[in-house]
Amino acid sequence: MITFIPRVKVSKNWVIIAPILSIVFTIFFGLLIFTFLGYNPLETLYQIFVSPFSRIDRISDILVKACPLIIIGTGLMLCFKSNVWNIGAEGQFIMGALLAGFIALSFPNIETKFFLLITILAGFVGGALWAFIPAILKTKLNVNEILVSLMLVYVAMLFIDFIVRGPLRDPMSFGFPLSKPYPEGAIINKIPFPGIGFLGQLHYGILFVFLLVPISWIFVNKTLGGFKINVLGSAPQAAKFAGFKQNSITLTVLLLSGGLAGVAGVIEVSANIGQLQPEVSFGYGFTAIIVAFLGRLSPVGILFAGIIIATVKLGADNAQMTMGIPKVVTGLFEGILLFFLLTGETLQKYKIKWSEGK
Amino acid sequence: MLVKSGVLMAKKELEILLKATKINKSFGNFVANKDIDISIAKGQIHALLGENGAGKSTLVKIFYGVLQPDKGSIEINNQKVTITSPNVARKNGIGMVFQHFSLFPALTVAENILIALDKKIKFNKVVDEITKLSKEWELFVDPLKLVSELSVGEKQRVEIIRCLMQNPDLLIMDEPTSVLTPQEIKNLFKILKRLSSSGCSILYISHKLEEIIQLADKVTILKSGESIASIDARKTTTNFLAETMVGKKITELKKTIKSKSKNVAFEVKNLDKLKDHEFGISLTNINLKVNYGEILGVAGIAGNGQVELMEILSGEINCEDNNQILLDKLPIGKTYINERRKLGIETIPEERTFQATVPNLTLSENTFLTYFFKYNNTKNLISNLLNNPQNSIEESTKIIKNNDVRCPEINPLASQLSGGNLQKFILGRSLANNPKVAIFSQPTWGVDIGAATAIRQKLLDLSQNGKAVILISQDLEEIFELSDKVCVINEGVLSEIFDVRDITATDVGLLMGGKNKKNNKMERIK
Lengths: 358, 526
Description:
The structure holds two protein chains of two kinds.
Chain A: E1 2-6, H1 12-36, H2 41-50, H3 56-81, H4 89-106, H5 115-141, H6 145-165, E2 190-193, E3 197-203, H7 206-222, H8 224-234, H9 236-241, H10 246-273, H11 284-294, H12 299-323, H13 327-349, E4 350-354
Antiparallel strand pairs in A: 1-4, 2-3
Helix pairs in contact in A: 1-2, 1-13, 2-12, 3-7, 3-8, 3-10, 3-11, 3-12, 4-5, 4-6, 4-10, 4-11, 5-6, 5-10, 7-8, 11-12, 12-13
Chain B: H1 7-11, E1 16-27, E2 30-41, E3 45-49, H2 56-63, E4 71-76, E5 79-81, H3 86-91, E6 94-97, H4 109-116, H5 123-136, H6 152-165, E7 170-174, H7 182-197, E8 201-206, H8 209-215, E9 218-223, E10 226-232, H9 238-246, E11 264-273, E12 283-291, E13 295-299, H10 306-314, E14 325-327, E15 330-331, H11 337-343, E16 345-348, H12 363-371, H13 381-385, H14 393-402, H15 419-431, E17 437-441, H16 449-464, E18 468-472, H17 476-482, E19 485-490, E20 493-494, E21 498-499, H18 505-512
Parallel strand pairs in B: 3-8, 3-9, 6-7, 7-8, 13-18, 13-19, 16-17, 17-18
Antiparallel strand pairs in B: 1-2, 1-4, 4-5, 9-10, 11-12, 11-14, 14-15, 19-20, 19-21
Helix pairs in contact in B: 4-5, 12-14, 14-15, 15-16
């Protein structure tokens, strides 16, 4: 039998060595697998790890890709810290994008960028409303939020599909399931750099991340609200004894995380797509769950985790485009990376003991 | 079964059944057992005494094969054995009754015993065997009853019968009396004495001194993982045992004669509360009253509704009617716990970690936990928004200093404190709020004697300073030592309140065993 024994003291050196070792192991197993499958192993590793950093516009693409992951992950952090298992961020992302899109398309001639404040707010409301369903079921009827939030993802996917094929379809789209393009006021622009121009797809939406990370850090570490979430997550009985209202905390974190997922949806569509289509998310809501945990449920950790995951995802895309390596293989590689990163983190905190017997 | 020759009795004390030498066991940096030597004679009742955390449980778990020693050897009947699992222990004639029973509530007594047997026997034969054993040893229990329908005492009997089925040479009992009424304890002792005179050795773990003097032949005292004395239990005194166990003189409680107030501080009227989950207890028609300057003791065996009562007295859960709880004659039944704190009602729940404190938070954060409202600044909204645990560092430092809370470092995590020190901190945190009414549940449960004495003294001081105290405790000695008035909770029903001078421990024991069920006529107790 294997038992995990908590280490008395976490060694400072290992905090640095463990992630490096994890990467070394990942590279080793990656080399093995790629060789075994008949791909040039070094070339593949180059595509996955190095090519995303090889040009400045590619680095900015990492940020663009990480942007929704970090925003959603931060919201999920609040849920997971308080033991509320919202795994339906994907659906909340879609509903946020949809509601904002509906508002945007209702004002086809608007040009002022102040309108973005309204669409982003609408995105927050859309996502929060979608999260309100599992929240109210959980707090009033004690229905498990995992199932409800997950199932609502599929409802949201079908709903946006229906909307862009029906009510919001652009009559000029030649039958494609697409809405009209957003008005100028609902578009998030790319950031122009003097003398360089645009850096890849880098857009103003990224500013929201730079605002969100410090605010959420202050919220978690320096306010009563963050303290309540922390206590509820680690000792629900103690939260009750302290007089914190469990239901209102549950409701709040679900609404906040739903809202943030919705905002991520707005930014993604307004900056990168510019109109509604059947598929607005590419699994961001699910990937963000990994980001939240990889970032150890801390705002700064999530910032880095988001960048790491975005890098590997882009690297995998590069490998697919240049070398024709199928997505399943790069997916496997991502799995190995996560496995070793999480193992390294666990072994920092626990010793493994093998004991005989049953 | 269990017919041992009478010759053994004569040789009692001479032949050694189990001998352990230099037993060592550590968990990480924590040394639980250090070079422990112990030898148990055949037919001897050998008590193992020590405070919580002294290493008693670790040692017996090694004997029963649940844990493996790091170093050291065990001999049974002069033969060296390695006890790798409870299975091996049973084959070597060792049986154990755990403090927390390991019975399946949904199965009958006979089924529970059947699945635990190493040999496979037919069901009917097991039933016969149980009936026979329970007659022989006066361990009365119906083999076909569901375990969930049994009382705690009966469950313990089932565990003992289960051990006896294996015909053991050594029976280990881990704190068996902590859940029993005085009457049940008496019965248990009778059985244990009979067992020992039939030749079965008993290793009896306890921290209750009276019991050991009454029951044991020999006593080995453990302190911080080491065996510090092994003496004849029949020729010692409780005082000597206590001082050896704690390693210092026990200070007596200081009681001054108090002027009692006739003013009712806190009152509960006709309170009913249905249980909110399957294993909960419903409270039925609770009535209680406590005056200023008085300690009201609520006795009762654990699991009879104390937790539920505490939830409703503290305000974690509200009453249906505001008038069901009165503070200074004002209704507060519908106020929540923090409003009651502001009104001067302080409660300490039974669960020290995870309820009264959060283990992975520091003491200052744990101070903030229940008093965050103290640091609210009504004038400045921004600073209110940033109201956080750092604001409570000054207060927690004061609590630590004033209550002699021994910390391994400045502002440690709650989990780094021992049970006694954590409880001193929790108590200090409540006292810092200067309560009018203090409601404490099992304040000294599982706490070492030194800390327990300090805590009891604080409770006395409170009442002597004119505060009202409600003490919910399963420790009868404590109840009688501290209380002015006594009542008993049994299956969610509270007895009437007696003056402590008008009632004996035996009467309270009867009430604890359920002699005041609602359908029976209340017995008069003189």
